[in-house]
Design a protein that fits this description.
single chain; 466 residues; alpha+beta; Jelly Rolls; Rossmann fold; 11-stranded antiparallel β-sheet; 6 helices; 15% helix; globular
Length: 466
């Protein structure tokens, strides 16, 4: 099988310092596996003959740069996000900012990756971070491709590599089966002790962060065509305020975010009315479109029609509460949780097919917020909770009498007051500046996310004494 890689001339970025985020879950329960120097198809794969010069902390010894294949269950591979083994040695994930990290001694890496290609129209993009710098952006070039060239031709020595899923859960799942290394895996660096969780919508997922609003990039589909697109190549959770705050605080980061989702109601009621509290406990939180016709009438062959067995190794539906798809919250216990919900509850929303919807009831939203925080505190009793004000909500739009921004802030303050009255000072209101978002769809741009991330990091640092 040919090794496949992708380096679009508009997308490759090199030389920008980008410290690695920590990882949330290290799957140490699995046994290590070394493929003994061949690719999955027995071709020998990437890499040259053994030997080569020594560098990068190799201690002056000869470096073996012959190919070695390592299964996804190898204990030296680290993970962040909600990963699950749908099949033995094949991990599936969809959360934005899902990360796969290794340290290796050698000259290059091929990843054994597949992509859901959801509805035949969506694909996931990854940031490649090499030795602490953003190296490139890649995706799986076809649905059934399993060998994707990540880096090659490096100076023989020790290197750190992280693949970071840029796109949100609704863009589809990735499947990871391991790495072929032109060299050998070595023990990774220790993980940061600090842990942060971020819960939100398209803002937290970094939607449209890398393109200017109104440009052709914002209408590109995942195949870089100017049709039926929404700027998928330019969404980037790794540029979101959550990722920025995590880097500033040197903390592990876990994002749970879905575009259009709300706390009490979503932006649209056309399909999947489940809100964040209803999906938070699931491994795969993306929208279920089984009640609507997928684009081109195709579910991509991955069992997305809901119900029954089929798709992705006979996994069945990912959109029910089957125990196989329940996330074990003990696998990642954060020191702080940032909740960034309300933009889709209070906004005018997508009124089809029901016509205009009433304004959100602030008291009802506040009650729902308290119930959700109570649940989070049950999972993470020592964590501080930060209720973040939306940077996209405003007053006086679309009607002059609209008070969406003020209403959300009143609800947040009421939530904090509720806990203060109980003597609990670990729930915080986190005000945010209203941005005229310059990213796609008026979402915050990467630069605006950086500002939000700095403010969030400052608030967390002050409350937790970091």
């Amino acid at each position: 099988m040919a090794r496949l890689g992708f380096h679009h001339p508009r997308l490759v970025t090199t030389g920008r310092t980008l410290p690695l985020l920590g990882v949330a879950v290290v799957l140490t329960a699995f046994s290590a596996c070394n493929g003994g120097g061949t690719d999955a198809d027995g071709s020998g794969g990437m890499g040259g003959s053994s030997g080569g010069s020594d560098s990068g902390g190799s201690g002056g010894t000869t470096i073996d740069t012959s190919p070695h294949t390592y299964a996804a269950t190898d204990e030296r591979i680290q993970y962040v996000g909600r990963f699950d083994a749908i099949e033995p040695e094949r991990l599936v994930y969809s959360a934005p900012l899902s990360q796969i990290t290794i340290r290796f001694r050698g000259t290059g890496v091929t990843a054994l990756l597949e992509d859901e290609y959801r509805y035949n129209q969506r694909r996931n993009f990854y940031d490649v971070v090499l030795d602490g710098e953003l190296h490139s952006k890649l995706h799986v070039p076809e649905r059934l491709a399993t060998e994707v060239l990540v880096v090659e031709g490096l100076s023989p020595g020790d290197h750190d590599l992280t693949l970071i899923k840029r796109n949100e859960a609704d863009n589809g799942k990735g499947m990871f089966s391991g790495f072929t290394v032109a060299g050998t895996l070595i023990d990774p660096a220790p993980l940061p002790e600090r842990k942060l969780a971020f819960i939100g919508d398209s803002i937290t997922a970094g939607s449209g962060a890398e393109a200017d609003d109104g440009t052709d990039q914002c209408t590109e589909n995942a195949f870089f065509e100017q049709e039926n697109g929404w700027g998928q190549p330019y969404h980037n959770a790794n540029a979101s305020y959550a990722a920025v705050a995590g880097r500033l605080l040197e903390a592990q980061v876990h994002i749970t975010a879905v575009s259009g989702i709300g706390l009490l109601r979503n932006y649209t009621s056309v399909y999947d009315v489940r809100t964040m509290p209803q999906v938070y406990d699931l491994i795969f939180v993306e929208r279920d479109r089984s009640g609507a016709n997928p684009p081109n009438g195709d579910d991509g062959g991955y069992g997305l029609g809901g119900g029954g067995e089929g798709g992705m190794g006979g996994a069945g539906s990912y959109f029910d509460t089957d125990p196989r798809w329940i996330w074990d919250t003990e696998r990642f216990v954060p020191d702080a949780v940032v909740v960034a919900l309300g933009t889709n509850d209070f906004s005018p929303g997508d009124t089809l097919p029901l016509g205009s919807r009433p304004n959100m009831d602030v008291d009802a939203w506040t009650d729902a917020y308290v119930r959700f925080v109570d649940r989070l505190k049950g999972y993470y009793p020592s964590a501080h909770v930060f209720a973040l004000q939306s940077p996209m909500l405003g007053d006086g739009w679309p009607d002059s009498e609209d008070t969406f921004r003020s209403d959300q802030w009143a609800g947040i303050q009421a939530v904090v007051s509720h806990y203060a009255d109980l003597g609990d000072d670990t729930v915080h209101a986190l005000p945010g500046e209203k941005f005229a978002g310059s990213g796609c769809g008026t979402h915050p741009s990467s630069a605006q996310h950086a500002e939000i991330g700095e403010a969030v990091a400052t608030a967390i640092r002050g409350a937790l004494g970091w």
